[in-house]
Design a protein that fits this description.
- By secondary structure, this protein is α+β, with helices and mostly antiparallel strands.
- The protein has 2 domains: 4-134, 3-Layer(aba) Sandwich (Creatine Amidinohydrolase, Chain A, domain 1); 139-351, Creatine Amidinohydrolase (Alpha-Beta Complex).
- 36% of the residues lie in helices and 21% in strands.
- It has a 6-stranded mixed beta sheet with strand order 4-3-2-1-5-6, sandwiched between helices. A 3-stranded antiparallel beta sheet has the order 7-10-11.
- Helix 4 (84-94) packs across helix 5 (107-117), helix 7 (139-162) runs antiparallel to helix 8 (169-182) and helix 9 packs antiparallel against helix 10 (270-283).
- The radius of gyration is 23 Å and the shape is elongated.
- The protein binds manganese (II) ion.
- Manganese (II) ion binds at residues 232, 323, 325, 339.
- Residues 232, 323, 325, 339 line the site of manganese (II) ion (MN).
């Protein structure tokens, strides 16, 4: 595996002489950045100076694990009563770092760090550096995402087998989650969605205690995690026999997904891939009912770069992993979404989730 801390340092150029990541509760991105760089997410701060060793500041609860598992940096214990910001600031001063990059930071931490390091060091918001690395997956990462994709596909098989009249949404969710877990999933990339009937018209319809009825649309959106890497997949099913209108709208969404998939390739513009799907849905008369972007990157986080939507400036590159997920949502009628996780390849890209291509479940 490549030394990602070294790769990050290379991208500093003349703009930075250090980088800091502060792990706070509810900052999944910072945790993922730390995991990506140091192979360990349980640190409280990671300081990467341009020259010399990187330091991972760790509380006692995670210190032994950090010593055993963290790579390319030196774990330093935050002793009881010590202030991690003070420790960090002392090291920044000691190394005479002048321009310290960061991605996300709570305003409280920013103010505290800025005050502690003083005027000699500038904090520079530089979010693209780590993302430029993270958005291109290496072979090792792809192996893990592929497995996450297979586990997610098995979860969808369980959905397919358990969507029946009289079943409750959460019972279907339980079967999906059990199947993925039993086969080796480390957890859920996000809360399992089994949204039936009217709530299927909400893109994030969740999962409740509604009983499935004949003729219901059911939108299932699930994701497994394998060794920290995720996948994301949605399918739409009908309980019993689909109506002509359900068949018709489903065919539009399917066509949008397939044609966008054909455009997902090295060098294509994300906004144009989005437009391919959006134009199909628009021409069919449902443009205003496709209420979200076409897709997003997937990796250590469920939603990451690059993004595929009408205003995206991203271009796709070999090694990106993105979702392709057009939808049509009709309030009072129901919703339709088809989503696969796709690996961007030089020519024909590869679906990492697949199958279950029909509305019928029985
Ligand atoms: Mn998604």
């Amino acid at each position: 595996m490549i030394n990602r801390i070294r790769a990050l340092k290379k991208s500093f150029n003349k703009e930075l002489d250090g980088y800091v990541i502060i792990n706070q509760p509810n900052t999944l991105t910072n945790q993922a950045h730390m995991l990506y760089l140091a192979d360990f997410s349980g640190g409280t701060a990671l300081l990467v100076p341009k020259e010399g060793e990187s330091t991972l500041y760790v509380y006692g609860v995670n210190y032994e694990a950090a010593k055993a598992e963290a790579r390319n940096c030196t774990p330093e214990l935050i002793k009881r009563g010590k202030d991690v910001v003070k420790m960090l600031a002392d090291q920044v001063k000691h190394l005479k770092l002048k321009k310290l990059g960061y991605d996300l930071m709570a305003i409280q931490s920013y103010e505290k760090i800025a005050k502690s390091i003083g005027n000699a060091t500038k904090l520079v918001a530089k979010s693209d550096l780590i993302w430029n690395l993270r958005r291109v997956k290496d072979e090792y990462e792809l192996k893990l995402i592929r497995t996450a994709g297979q586990l997610t596909t098995e979860g969808m098989r369980a959905a397919c087998n358990n969507i029946k009249t009289g079943y409750l949404e959460f019972e279907v969710a339980a079967e999906i989650e059990y199947e993925m877990r039993k086969r080796g999933s480390d957890g859920l990339a996000f809360e399992t969605q089994v949204a039936s009937g009217p709530r299927s018209a909400y893109p994030h319809g969740g999962c409740g205690e509604r009983k499935l009825k004949n003729g219901d649309l059911v939108v299932v959106d699930i994701g497994a995690i394998f060794k920290n890497y995720r996948a994301d997949m949605s399918r739409t099913f009908v309980v019993g026999k689909p109506s002509a209108k359900q068949q018709k709208i489903f065919a539009i969404v399917n066509k949008a997904e397939e044609e966008a998939f054909q455009k997902i390739t090295d060098g294509s513009k994300a906004s144009e891939v989005d437009a391919t799907a959006r134009n199909i849905i628009k021409r069919a008369g449902y443009g205003e009912h496709f209420v979200h972007g076409l897709g997003h990157g997937v990796g250590l986080e469920t939603h990451e770069q690059p993004v595929l939507n009408p205003t995206s400036k991203d271009s796709l590159r070999v090694g990106n992993v993105v979702t392709d997920e057009p939808g049509i949502y009709l309030i009072g009628f129901g919703g339709f979404r088809v989503e696969d996780t796709v690996l961007v390849c030089r020519n024909r890209s590869e679906r990492l989730t697949s199958g279950f291509d029909s509305l019928n479940v029985q």
